């Protein structure tokens, strides 16, 4: 769990926003062009996901309290869902 959360954290936040540099064209992808028109919101969501993933990694490290781990995972899942609902093209 800790390793997986670390991998997630390493691929979002600043790393995610670098995949969609401001002014770039997005094609072909499942990412919405709203990323470019709502860049600050996208960057905020990416940073929120990074924070939640790091929180999950820290919570899961050396702990057996599944309730705390589940709550941290739930926060990460919520940030991901919020971002995808806004910035992923619905098929």
Report on the structure:
With 91 residues, this protein is mostly helical. It has one domain (2-87): Cytochrome c/b562 (Four Helix Bundle (Hemerythrin (Met), subunit A), Up-down Bundle), CATH 1.20.120. The protein is 68% helix and 0% strand. It contains five helices and no strands. It has helices at 2-10, 14-18, 34-37, 39-60, 66-87. Helix 1 (2-10) packs antiparallel against helix 4 (39-60) and helix 4 packs antiparallel against helix 5. The longest helix is centred in the middle third of the chain and has 22 residues, at 39-60. The protein is elongated, with a radius of gyration of 14 Å.
Strand tally, please? 0
Q: Give the oligomeric state of the chains in this entry, treating copies of one chain as homo and distinct chains as hetero.
A: single chain
Poorly predicted ranges (pLDDT <50, ≥5 residues)?
Answer: none
Instruction: Round the Cα radius of gyration to an integer and report it.
Output: 14 Å
Q: Report the span from N to C terminus.
A: 30 Å
Structural class label: mainly alpha
Inertia-based shape:
elongated
- What percent of residues adopt helix (DSSP H or I)? 55-70%
CATH class term: Mainly Alpha
Whole-number total of structural domains: 1
Strand content: under 5%
H/E series, N to C?
Answer: HHHHH
Mean pLDDT: 82
CATH architecture: Up-down Bundle
Number of helices: 5
CATH fold node name: Four Helix Bundle (Hemerythrin (Met), subunit A)
Name given to the CATH homologous superfamily: Cytochrome c/b562
- Main β-sheet description: none
């Amino acid at each position: 769990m800790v390793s997986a959360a670390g991998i997630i954290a390493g691929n979002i936040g600043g790393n995610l926003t670098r995949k969609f540099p401001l002014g770039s064209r997005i094609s072909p992808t499942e990412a919405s062009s709203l990323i470019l028109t709502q860049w600050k919101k996208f960057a905020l969501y990416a940073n929120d996901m990074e924070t939640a993933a790091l929180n999950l990694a820290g919570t899961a490290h050396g702990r057996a309290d599944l309730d705390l781990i589940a709550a941290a995972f739930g926060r990460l899942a919520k940030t991901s869902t919020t971002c995808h609902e806004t910035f992923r093209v619905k098929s």
